């Protein structure tokens, strides 16, 4: 809880990562079928890019991200598969906030 120790802050927040994953998943899964498809992933990456002020990823990159995360190759992401992405984006955005 000490001020000036961003690592501790991160650990503290990562206790809630499952909550963040749940919330994000519910937001991204716009048709509520319990899976994130390529279109939904694209919308999410687009929104993230805007938030971070970086260019939106092209379709090919969305596809590449999906394929990388899609462990059972059904071309969509379950909550578990999606979790890896949320964790990564979360860590990135924490870094971009600049300690
Ligand atoms: Ca969906
Ligand atoms: Ca999958």
Concise summary:
With 99 residues, the chain is an all-alpha fold. It is 66% helix and 0% strand.
Polypeptide structure, described:
By secondary structure, the protein is mainly alpha-helical. The chain has helices at residues 6-14, 17-28, 38-52, 59-69, 79-96. Helix 2 (17-28) packs across helix 5 (79-96) and helix 3 packs across helix 4 (59-69). The chain starts with 5 loop residues before the first helix and ends with a helix. The mean pLDDT is 87. It binds calcium ion (2 copies). The site of one calcium ion (CA) has 7 residues, from loops.
Instruction: Please tell me the CATH architecture by its name.
Output: Orthogonal Bundle
The end-to-end span amounts to 15 Å
* Overall structural domain count: 1
Q: State which percent range the strand residues make up.
A: under 5%
| Class computed from helices, strands and strand pairing | mainly alpha
Q: Give the mean pLDDT.
A: 87
CATH-level-4 superfamily name: EF-hand
Low-confidence stretches: none
Helix count, DSSP H or I runs of 4 or more residues: 5
Kindly identify the CATH topology.
Recoverin, domain 1
Estimated radius of gyration:
14 Å
Identify the CATH class: Mainly Alpha
The profile of the biggest β sheet is: none
Write out the distinct hetero groups bound to the structure. Answer: calcium ion
Shape: globular
Number of DSSP-assigned strands = 0
**Percent helix among the residues?**
55-70%
């Amino acid at each position: 809880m000490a001020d000036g120790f961003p690592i501790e802050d991160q650990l503290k927040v990562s206790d809630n990562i499952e909550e963040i994953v749940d919330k994000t998943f519910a937001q991204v899964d716009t048709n509520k079928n319990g899976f994130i498809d390529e279109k939904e992933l694209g919308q999410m990456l687009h929104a993230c890019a805007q938030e971070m002020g970086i260019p939106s990823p092209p379709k090919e990159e969305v596809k590449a991200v999906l394929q990388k995360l899609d462990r059972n190759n059904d071309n969509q992401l379950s909550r578990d598969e999606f979790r890896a992405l949320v964790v990564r984006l979360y860590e990135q955005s924490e870094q971009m906030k600049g300690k």
